[in-house]
Amino acid sequence: MTPAADRTVFVVDDDAAALDSLVILLRSDGLNPSGFSSAATFLEALTPESRGCVISDVRMPGMDGVQLLKTLKSMGCMLPVIVITGHADVTVAVQAMKAGAAEFVQKPYESELMLRMVRGCLEDNDDAVDANSKRTRVLRRIESLTARERQVLDLIMEGASNKTVASSLEISPRTVEIYRANVMSKMRADSLSELIRMTLSSGAA
Questions:
Q1: Sequence-ordered alpha helix ranges (H) in the chain
Q2: pTM score of the predicted model
Q3: Both 84 and 168 in a single domain?
Q4: Of 7, 70, 78, 90, which shows the fewest CB atoms inside 10 Å?
Q5: Same domain assignment for residues 91 and 173
């Protein structure tokens, strides 16, 4: 798991008092908060390497919380977002969830509830980043295959036997075995089932 110091809880709220209060709460729990008074200033500070989660108020001048969610989604950002809403914002909260919010919490909220949500989101981000890193590794292995090896992999994924692969590619069964061994080696798969599983998980099949 990523150390807390390497993960940031980005807090976005135009209410200075509410922002400071939440930053203090998070810091008291050993977390690493970073406060922003607007969605725009937060987006300027965001980098592709940013790890952690976001807490955003829904009602803000300029870009509001729902618009921020949509912007983060369009960027492919994997940071989970907790949205803070008022009691009268049930409709907005639903919009936020549809836009990709991980959680929403109503004001006034209990400190322990907020901290529990943040911890859950940090774990979710760790899982998402780890899964994405694994997928990227597998895709790189697939990219390392020659054109012929990729053809063999595609036929394997279709359930073709060595004999069928040989017939389809008009090569000898012995040559298929060589290509198949190369595919297994480059993909770092110890078994056929592992090869199939990793290829499917990468989305390249």
A1: 16-28, 39-45, 65-74, 90-98, 111-143, 147-157, 162-169, 173-187, 192-202
A2: 0.70
A3: no
A4: 90
A5: no
